[in-house]
Amino acid sequence: xxxxxxxxxxxxxxxxxxxxxxxxxxxxxxxxxxxxxxxxxxxxxxxxxxxxxxxxxxxxxxxxxxxxxxxxxxxxxxxxxxxxxxxxxxxxxxxxxxxxxxxxxxxxxxxxxxxxxxxxxxxxxxxxxxxxxxxxxxxxxxx
Length: 143
Hints:
Layout: H1 8-18, H2 26-36, H3 42-54, E1 59-62, E2 68-71, E3 78-82, E4 88-91, H4 97-106, E5 117-120, H5 123-136
Parallel strand pairs: 3-5
Antiparallel strand pairs: 1-2, 3-4
Helix pairs in contact: 1-2, 1-3, 2-3
């Protein structure tokens, strides 16, 4: 595993990510970090995120929405992405090690890990959708 020279900016990026649970993109992290380091460049944020991923200190999530998301929790766990608002959530369930063994039977090499990303609509988007449908029908439950 790669060891890195200390960097205040990198530590700030990592601390910012650890204090968030929304799995932000590099752009969102950049906007947050600029409050503390107004002269930091987006390139510096990307470089440091890549270094933190390489050292295993954070996770990069490629969710198919065009932008990588980052997770300060480096231990294996599953995720859920809302197809509507594009938010990424942790899924607090047990890691299925048996899935590695099942995949191993079919894999063209050695399976040592897996990651799972579930897709659907989050509760917030479902509630918003239901509220909009009720308003269209003339039913307003918020009153």
